[in-house]
Amino acid sequence: MKRTIVPEIKKELIYKLAQRGCREDDRTLDEFRPISFETDIIGTAEGSARLKLGKTDVIVGVKLQPGEPYPDKPDQGVLMTGCELKPMAHPGFESGAPSDDSVEIARVVDRGIRESGMIDMQALCIEPGKKVWMVFLDIQVINYDGNLFDAATMAALAAMNSTSVPASRFGLGEDFPLPVNAWPVTTTFVKLRDVLLVDPTFTEELASDARFTVSIDDNGHIRAMQKGLKGALIYDEVIRALDIAQKLSLELRTRLQTGE
Amino acid sequence: MLDEIKLLDKDGMRLDGRKLDQLRPIRMEAGVLDNADGSAYIEWGGNKVIAAVYGPREAQPKYLQDPSKAIVQVSYNMAAFSSDERVRPGPNRRATEISKITAEALESVVLTGNFPRASIDVYIEVLEADAGTRCAGLTAASIAIADAGIPMKDLVAACAVGKIDGQLALDLGKKEDNFGQADMPLGFVPGTGEISLLQMDGHMTIAEFKAAMQMCMAACKHIHELQRDALRRRYAVNYADMSEPEAEQ
Q1: Count of domains in chain B?
Q2: Selected residues 3-62 of chain B with any CB under 8 Å from a CB in chain A
Q3: ipTM tops the 0.85 cut
Q4: Which structural domain range is residue B175 located in?
């Protein structure tokens, strides 16, 4: 991403507000922006969702096709996650090969889904060692205002839950819904000096020293974590973040499951 | 050739129930993205396309800069999930060509002389494809440029015409595109009567070409109305709805 400058005075403002428990958009420190989403928006995809987190706007499409399993997991389906940060979404995004940022986002989303056992991969086996379903999860960002990790994960969950395996198209029996077992929800924090903010906007991301994403499953257990940016976190901060994430994930999961 | 596939029924109606000179349903909206300077969304039959415009901004890399006028750069991209077969992300020869001809079509209407050394960057993302994405993309891109407040001679309206079961047909659908005998995308500028994009593949006689052009230009005029309407909905102010400001006590 092209270098974007945030004035020191703006950084100072965000920090001063945060110290008092406030933010520029009147949220508290551990509050998400408004979330809205719709599913089944792309007819050509087997599952899809468009999710808005504040002004961040993400479309996720799921495609399935039969393919070869990995040799070390001959009886399991394959999940491939891709993320495109196109210049459409932000003046700082450049066209060309996937950037480091987009690779990181794709891998963090992938990890949360994979490690939680969200999809029953064994149910996606067609013929052990020869043929399994390959699940392509593609994340397309269309407007970027921070926190793609959570927006993309939530959109991915909603899209997967609306996915139908196109078995009949490939002559492999009847279509069936993608077997979804778990709902791993991520919560992302940024750290500004000594304060933590949930669901950062683009400006808050620029002003921050460190970023921390945690994926929590239905049982409140941790399934994946990712620390980013140049700053460091201390132990107490991580514990505090995990505590907040556990609480928030309950609410987010219910919203995604009920579609409200 | 798979000539067995019938694209017209005995009453001359098409697979989706359209008449030969009938467009698919089209819906357009201007100003759909926050970050872009201008944007537009179009649903055209089964096509769903977003166009975003950034600029005029400094052209990068610098050697691209033209000291006398702005350049128009277009990036046409199909989302991985936009087609029945997953599209491998990244540029391919088809996307490169469509980007180039779309840029040329737009450059002919944008008043580029107003912005020396600048670039007007247009991003067209096809979210769902159902034949005719380049026309939908060009149509949306025109709206997006206008939405960005960039002066233009006129909007470019685009539509395709083709030949199915030996008959000229407007705005081909996917099956008609695959099994028809010709496909001709046209970008038309109603205000000046100019053609800013024209491609053709297949087989047509001169007489057929003339008839096809007439059919397609008429359709473009209709699409041009829809484009203007999308901009009007975004920018028009209805003075009747505006109440007098309350007098301060």
Answers
A1: 1
A2: 33-36, 46, 48, 50, 52, 54, 57
A3: no
A4: 26-234
